[in-house]
Amino acid sequence: MRDPHPSIAATAAPRDTEPQHRDHDGRRNGRVRDRDPRHRGLDAERGLALDVPVPAPAHPPEIPEDRLDADAIRTIARLRHVGHQAYFVGGCVRDVLLGFTPKDFDVATSAHPGEVRATFRNCRLIGRRFRLAHVYFRGAKIIEVATFRKNPTDAGEDLGEEGDLLITRDNVFGTAEEDARRRDFTVNGLFYDVFAGEVIDYVGGRADLEAHRIATIGDPEIRMQEDPVRALRAIRFASRLGFTIEPETFAAMRRHAPELGRCAPPRLLEETFKILRCGASQRAFELLRSSGALPVILPALASFFDGAGDEARRRFLAHLAALDRLVKAGGDPSEAVLLGALLLHLPAPEPGAPSERDRLLAELVATARLPRRIAERVRLALASQRAFRGPPRRRRRGLTSQVYFRDALQLLELTVEATGEGREVLDRWRSDDAGAEGGDAPEPGRARAGRAAPAGDDLDLGAVPADRPAQEAGPAAEGAKRRRRHRGGRRRHRRGGGAPAGSSGPPA
Prior knowledge:
Blueprint: H1 6-9, H2 30-35, H3 42-45, H4 70-81, E1 86-89, H5 91-97, E2 107-109, H6 113-119, E3 123-126, E4 132-137, E5 141-147, H7 176-181, E6 190-193, E7 198-201, H8 205-211, E8 213-214, H9 220-226, H10 230-241, E9 244-245, H11 247-255, H12 265-276, H13 281-291, H14 294-297, H15 299-307, H16 310-328, H17 335-343, H18 356-367, H19 372-388, H20 405-419, H21 423-437, H22 469-472, H23 475-494
Parallel strand pairs: 2-5, 8-9
Antiparallel strand pairs: 1-2, 1-6, 3-4, 4-5, 6-7
Helix pairs in contact: 10-12, 10-13, 16-20, 17-19, 17-20, 18-19, 19-20, 20-21
């Protein structure tokens, strides 16, 4: 597709004039050139700068530049400089237009993944089902760059038996308009051209933003069959943004809720965590029940809620409301706390008998790739709730030093916040914790497991993502290595191994 702003595209540097060959799937042979030593340093020869200037738009921009991420703007400018289209896309455009501060700024481009990797040395390609490029910056920041794609079903690819619409591969490249139309909801299909200062809307997303409405792009029946997880995403967006779900879209969600069982369990678990961490989990839970999705993704919890009395239901929803207040206040609860907030209400296990809590955790470990360490922390944090409320003389010694203690204490905080009971117990354990740790304990919250940002300059000084042992080795590690070599040498000498190579005379 032609750039919707040809005057802006004309400011970018021209592409390399040598012929570009394509392989069997239509991708340019950027990977071959990247491996070929004759093409190393090609960027330097073409005079690419680290900070490509962004021309001022002809009119006031629809989104002020200070509302956008500077590193993402640099990424877009770099891609435009080498002749590709590149725009802000998706949730960051939606949130900025609504007055929110986005957590991430994603970029969509006409460059294929290999071409993005060739443009940024500190870049890594990830994913199989959906190939993406991650560009790394200081402070462990990652700018995600995706290539324009078209819907595989529209392209006649990836169809299962008897026209099954479930998408299992999503690497069919396309144009900017095709990429917008393959996205899930209209409010997520907006682009922003920072060079022109204009929002590009192919799907009517601006109107739905103004109406505070979540609606699929195209026929909701087809969209839910292509990816049933879109129902969970619709619930999360509607809950977090305070939007309504279009009636036809919600009806399609209800009809196809059983098909969530066909989706990969790790995706369902990941989306469940996102719902619990969105700051509106109480409303999301009600939408999960009314849409029919809850019995599919968390059957034990659905059975409990259906059979619980009014008081038990009120306590459960009050805990979710307390969790929402924690998230909105800037808290970042761990996965163990999120699961614990759900399982806390299931019947406590009887001595020597398996419980619903343990069965659900075992199922998540077996099918959804929940790490066993998290499952064990959930189990121990839940078991600690009874110890918290026991007599002081019977308190378990050393509980404050356990790795799961902070998760258990945060669950107690949620209970106190939800019920108003046990404030003195919470204060006592907080004081015990402060006394045991001396005030140096880390703050409770989720430890993010992300890759470290590359050392060196931000974009193109030859840096690569840092997860190599050599980069972690400091002077202390080098000294330890020398000591090991020295001790090994003495042992060989004592065993009569002879003199070291290159020495004269007997060993000392």
